[in-house]
Amino acid sequence: MMLCITQSVQDEIVFAISKPNCRLREGKMMEYQKKKNKLRPPRRRAMDLTLDDLNNQRHVTLTTEFDSDTLAKESSSIQHLDFSKNAINEWVWDWNLQNGAIKHNKKWLEIIDDKDHRLIHTIETYLNIIHPDDRNTVISAIERCIADEGPFHCQYRMKTRGNQFILVRDSGDVVERDSDGKPLRVVGAILNITEQIEQERTLRMLAFQDSLTGVFNRGYFYEQVQQRLEQSESNLYCAIISADVDNFKLINDRFGHQSGDNLLCFVGQQLLTLTQRAEDIVARFGADEFVVALFFDRDKQSEHLTSTIAMSETIVANIQDYGLNTHASPDFHLRLGLYHGKIEDSLEFRLHLADIALSHAKRLNAPNCVCYQEWMGERFAIRRELMRCLEQDLSEHFIAYIQPIVDQKQNIVGGEILLRWRNQAGELVPPIKFIDELETMRKLPMVTYWLFQRVISMINQYQWHHLSFSINISPSHFSNTTFMAQLMSLLAQYPEVKNLKMEITETVMFEDVAAIRASMDDLIDHKIQFSLDDFGTGFSSIDHLLQLPITELKIDKSFVGNIEHEQNRSVIELILAMAHNMKLSCVAEGIEQAEQLDYIRALGCEKFQGYYFSRPVPEDEFVALINNQLLS
Ligand code: C2E
Ligand code: CA
Ligand code: CA
């Protein structure tokens, strides 16, 4: 491989030779003649040139400008430089500091086109073929050597035929001095290291790069970002984006690994479009896991974040349009989670929080990058802990609380089973904080099944066959075939248990109603009854709801709690009238005061639930409540 840098037109360096036998094209020669008369600086010895002189020359005119004696003398001694012709792959040079002539061995012909005098020239000529950006380095290396600071070694880009630059390593030293110690001759050798450097670069890249997508690998990402975080001044921010493709495994299965690989390469390229500064890095951490580090100025934080999120939306859309998302393909999307860290955050911590944001992007089916927020962290901690609990005996971590349901005479006729979770700190966590998480983790049916086992075991243990117990069920349970099969097999084992209810909400209407209806019918065959929870808060039409085999309505506590408002009283009256008309029984939830009970009881409601009678209680307290009732 060849490192090819072509110099721009403006940087074009003019070569011209003043000797009569030089082969310059006519036009160039005339141009040169003009320049020579007008612009040529007075001749000086190479040693007299200052750094500024050399460096400021954009168009250095190549001119050997030696008198014929010097030329003849120097030419005759060129041969000795070719001793190495077949032995080593170097350009050898010999610089006479007295007359300024630099001689080269014949290998030099590989570089410069002219065949006559190019083996002998001046330092100005030489600098002309060095890349402008590298000239300073070379000049100061030479100056130090001539100033007796020892041999020089430097690396620079040198222009060869076809205006291509190669990378060379040049080393030389003073080999001859006068009686005062003043340098007279410097000899050195130039080695083409383009390929060597390129190989080193390739090796380095292999060690740093992800071979499939070409973005960086995890090792390089950690090393570089860590370094940048340590070095960065306090006004530099680092945001981390964690990205992965939902259902990536299915893409491999469905379309083959080549398609999967192509998609990953595309994702890598797309993520590169988010980078704006040289410090930004995109890396692939695992199969379809990518991480991006973006650096930006503190005062531009919100501007930068807004543009990143806007760009992320385009990327997510591009991935979706990639061509694999057809009706026959699994649903796959790129998900992105971003954490814009605080200065003091460690890289690990940043990655961790970006991952949390990513998990929320997945949960929300976000069409763009989701930024981390504090509450996400709490949820993540809950999720992790739940995960651990679910791997163990559920009875050690979950508790079935029971809230009594009473009849018009305030006798307990049953209870609602309400789940509680005891976390690592020993606190009793209410369902509002973990039910959704269990649902997202698709573990709620497993816990519901455990609740059914618990209730059946209590009914049998305490002979509560005359009581009715209800368990809350989200719509997803009906399509979970494992749950349905397990539950039906459990119910079949206990045919004596006849008073179990499932509380469903109006959200079932958003699902496949026909399929849910079929599952409900199967459950009815196993003596399950259905109660419609939180009635009055949803938006479903009553007609639709009544397509389902429901036998009970639960009037939502929001109406009961605000009974002083006429509007709420009207709703309660309407629900009760309708329920009675349709031969459905009613439970009024959230009774906290005697007035509420009196009012709703007077309307003919059959059952009541609320703190007025009892809060949800653990099993032993519920046993005590039942026993007290029996005694009274
Ligand atoms: P929900 O089904 O409407 O359950 C009634 C909630 O109202 C319970 O809250 C109960 O403690 C509370 N409550 C009862 N009486 C009163 C009262 O007089 N005043 C007030 N202000 N509140 C009262 P909890 O136990 O915190 O449960 C909250 C929700 O969590 C439940 O609402 C239910 O939707 C859900 N949930 C509880 N356990 C489960 C479960 O095992 N599975 C599912 N899917 N959801 C559950
Ligand atoms: Ca309920
Ligand atoms: Ca309710």
Automatic annotation (TrEMBL):
InterPro entries to which the protein is assigned, alphabetical: Biofilm_reg_signaling (IPR052155), EAL_dom (IPR001633), EAL_sf (IPR035919), GGDEF_dom (IPR000160), Nucleotide_cyclase (IPR029787), PAC (IPR001610), PAS (IPR000014), PAS-like_dom_sf (IPR035965)
What superkingdom does the record give? Bacteria
Supply the SUPFAM superfamilies for this chain: EAL domain-like, Nucleotide cyclase, PYP-like sensor domain (PAS domain)
Q: Which residues form the EAL domain?
A: 379-630
Q: Where is the GGDEF domain?
A: 236-375
Pfam families referenced in this protein's UniProt entry, alphabetically:
EAL, GGDEF, PAS_3
Protein name (record): Phosphodiesterase
In its UniProt entry, the species of origin is given as Vibrio sinensis
